């Protein structure tokens, strides 16, 4: 933009006392601008712009926070890993003694555990065999059928969170304890 | 017009000058950081993945932006010292070339961010077919197309920057892209929320609140930084085109150097948001620095 050059040159111009200000881009000539009779503060655009930008960013933040609210009724302080390995404590902690729910949650935990083992193995496998990209995906497809499904989207997310080496999303450190795995699922994928 | 014709009112908005040392430090830091990332990605074979190539592309466009500012400042200093004239043909061509480099950097940044967001989107929503959809070759082709388009439009915009027809699309492209990227991420967020709801049906921990906040904070930081660093400059372009003689606009345009410094700050912050979050990249850095000792 010639505006850039114009303003940059202007600062250099002010340093030199008598110089003809001849610049090729007559189009962007800034003639004398009179600052008389201003109704509002002269920096009003600057202030207004930055305030508007700040308001927008804060608004966006609140919208995103609202979007990611899970609305889970019971929030516990205990770690998820402990819960998984202490099935009997489900009832005691949450006062939800429904047998079906307990079985369901047990199943989900088992699935996630097995899927995660599988995913971590897959990542290992992929790292070893970088040559053929199609190989692991074929293998994964066959492995996939063996795993019990609860819902299609659940495993897909699980797979994508670990299998495709997207460390920018989640903390895919493989030395993390198994108990952390469910937290990985629960984290929004934008752990950039 | 001679500068002496300027009506020097006491209430004038004088140019806000950023010290040159600050300018050069910020620019040099941006260039070095992004160069390191490029080297790290090229050297480590594990990082030859589509996702890292898009991060590379972002690093290149950040580097170009900082480079532009550095060259421009050097140019100004040379003008001041008298080595270069202010109204030569060569200088005009140089100025056009530098303008197009800057626009290339801006467009490259926007499209790289878009590519990163799209890549993540495909990773989440087409997870099982990701490897077939986003092969390495396709990623390189996409990058080539993006950069060819950016180069073409930057040259066109630089040549025809006087026309309103180029300024308006340029300034519309910016919010449009931002909005599109926001939509992609919001959709991913909604999926994460439904995911978290499923997990919440399990005995869950209070970590939910923390991780939800974390995701929202991360995304806000990412988009907010990009907005805060580039929007002031885009507004400057608009005002320079449409109301250069208005005193309010002139006052806004007087903080032009601050806007330029903000763009270079974006080049420093972007790697922290994207590249340094990856453990693999961090370990590559550590190896590089240990080897150099």
TrEMBL record, chain A:
**Which domain of life does the UniProt lineage start with?**
Eukaryota
Keyword entries, A-Z: Cell membrane, Endoplasmic reticulum, Membrane, Transmembrane, Transmembrane helix
Q: Indicate the segments annotated as coiled coil, or none if absent.
A: none
The GO cellular component terms are: endoplasmic reticulum membrane; plasma membrane
Q: Where in the cell is it found?
A: Cell membrane; Endoplasmic reticulum membrane
The transmembrane segments are 43-67
Q: Name one GO molecular function term.
A: type 1 melanocortin receptor binding
InterPro entries recorded? MRAP
Query: Pfam families per the record?
Result: MRAP
- Membrane topology of the entry: Single-pass membrane protein
For this entry, list what GO says about its biological process: protein localization to plasma membrane; regulation of adenylate cyclase-activating G protein-coupled receptor signaling pathway
In the record, the note on similarity to other proteins reads: Belongs to the MRAP family.
The name on file for this protein is: MRAP2 protein
What is the organism field in this record? Dicaeum eximium
> Which lineage?
Eukaryota, Metazoa, Chordata, Craniata, Vertebrata
Automatic annotation (TrEMBL), chain B:
Keyword set includes Lipoprotein: yes
Locations listed in the record: Cell membrane
Q: Which InterPro entries match?
A: ACTH_rcpt (IPR001168), GPCR_Rhodpsn (IPR000276), GPCR_Rhodpsn_7TM (IPR017452), Melcrt_ACTH_rcpt (IPR001671)
Bilayer topology: Multi-pass membrane protein
- Which Gene Ontology CC terms are recorded? plasma membrane
Return the Gene3D superfamilies for the record.
Rhodopsin 7-helix transmembrane proteins (1.20.1070.10)
Q: Where is the G-protein coupled receptors family 1 profile domain?
A: 33-274
CDD domains the UniProt entry points to: 7tmA_MC2R_ACTH_R
Q: What's a single GO MF annotation on this record?
A: corticotropin receptor activity
> SMART domains recorded for this chain?
7TM_GPCR_Srsx
The UniProt entry, under PROSITE patterns, shows: G_PROTEIN_RECEP_F1_1 (PS00237), G_PROTEIN_RECEP_F1_2 (PS50262)
UniProt-listed Pfam families: 7tm_1
Q: Which UniProt keywords apply?
A: Cell membrane, Disulfide bond, G-protein coupled receptor, Glycoprotein, Lipoprotein, Membrane, Palmitate, Receptor, Transducer, Transmembrane, Transmembrane helix, Ubl conjugation
TM regions (residue ranges):
22-42, 49-68, 102-128, 140-162, 168-192, 213-235, 255-276
> Where's it mainly located?
membrane
Highest taxon above the source species: Eukaryota
Quaternary structure per UniProt?
Homodimer. Interacts with corticotropin (ACTH). Interacts with MRAP; this interaction targets MC2R to the plasma membrane. Interacts with MRAP2; competing with MRAP for binding to MC2R and impairing the binding of corticotropin (ACTH).
Give the record's family classification: Belongs to the G-protein coupled receptor 1 family.
Q: What does this protein do?
A: Hormone receptor primarily expressed in adrenal cortex that plays a key role in regulating adrenocortical function. Upon corticotropin (ACTH) binding, facilitates the release of adrenal glucocorticoids, including cortisol and corticosterone. In addition, MC2R is required for fetal and neonatal adrenal gland development. Mechanistically, activates adenylate cyclase (cAMP), the MAPK cascade as well as the cAMP-dependent protein kinase A pathway leading to steroidogenic factor 1/NR5A1-mediated transcriptional activation.
Write down what this protein is called. Answer: Adrenocorticotropic hormone receptor
- State the organism of origin: Dicaeum eximium
């Amino acid at each position: 933009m010639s505006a850039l050059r114009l303003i940059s040159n202007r600062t250099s111009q002010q340093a030199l006392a008598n110089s003809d200000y001849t610049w090729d881009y007559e189009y962007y000539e800034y003639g004398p601008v009179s600052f008389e009779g201003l109704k509002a503060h002269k920096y009003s655009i600057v202030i207004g712009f930055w305030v508007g930008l700040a308001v927008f960013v804060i608004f966006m933040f609140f919208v995103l926070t609202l979007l990611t609210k899970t609305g889970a009724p019971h929030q516990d302080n205990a770690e998820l890993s402990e819960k998984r390995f202490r099935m009997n404590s489900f009832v005691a902690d949450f006062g939800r003694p429904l047998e079906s729910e307990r079985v369901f949650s047990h199943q989900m935990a088992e699935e996630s555990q097995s899927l995660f083992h599988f995913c971590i193995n897959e990542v290992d496998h992929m790292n070893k065999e970088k040559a053929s990209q199609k190989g692991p995906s074929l293998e994964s497809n066959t492995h996939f059928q063996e795993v019990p499904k609860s819902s299609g989207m659940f495993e897909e997310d699980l797979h994508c969170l670990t299998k495709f080496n997207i460390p920018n999303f989640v903390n895919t450190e493989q030395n993390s304890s198994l108990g952390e795995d469910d937290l990985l699922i629960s984290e929004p994928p934008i752990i950039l | 017009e001679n500068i002496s014709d300027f009506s020097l009112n006491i209430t004038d908005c004088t140019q806000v000058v950023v010290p040159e040392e600050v300018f050069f430090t910020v620019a040099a830091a941006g260039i070095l950081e992004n160069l390191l990332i490029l080297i790290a990605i090229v050297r480590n074979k594990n990082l030859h993945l589509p996702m890292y190539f898009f991060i590379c592309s972002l690093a290149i466009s950040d580097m170009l932006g900082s480079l532009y500012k550095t060259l421009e400042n050097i140019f100004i200093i040379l003008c001041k010292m008298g080595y270069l004239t202010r109204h030569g043909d060569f200088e005009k061509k140089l100025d056009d070339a530098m303008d197009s480099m800057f626009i290339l950097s801006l467009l490259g940044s926007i499209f790289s961010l878009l590519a990163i967001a799209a890549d993540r989107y495909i990773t989440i929503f087409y997870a099982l077919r990701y490897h077939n959809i986003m092969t390495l070759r396709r990623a390189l082709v996409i990058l080539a197309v993006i950069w060819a388009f950016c180069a073409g439009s930057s040259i066109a915009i630089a040549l025809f920057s006087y026309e309103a027809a180029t300024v308006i699309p340029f300034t519309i492209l910016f919010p449009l892209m931002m909005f599109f990227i926001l939509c992609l991420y919001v959709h991913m967020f909604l999926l994460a929320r439904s995911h978290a709801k499923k997990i919440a049906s399990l005995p869950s921990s209070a970590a939910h609140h923390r991780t939800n906040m974390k995701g929202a904070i991360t995304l806000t930081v990412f988009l907010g930084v990009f907005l805060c660093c580039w929007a002031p400059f885009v507004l400057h372009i608009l005002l320079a085109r449409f109301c250069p003689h208005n005193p309010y606009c002139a006052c806004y345009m007087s903080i032009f150097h601050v806007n330029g410094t903000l763009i270079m700050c974006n080049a420093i912050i972007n790697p922290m948001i994207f590249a340094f979050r990856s453990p693999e990249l961090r370990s590559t850095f550590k190896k590089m620095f240990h080897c150099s000792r």
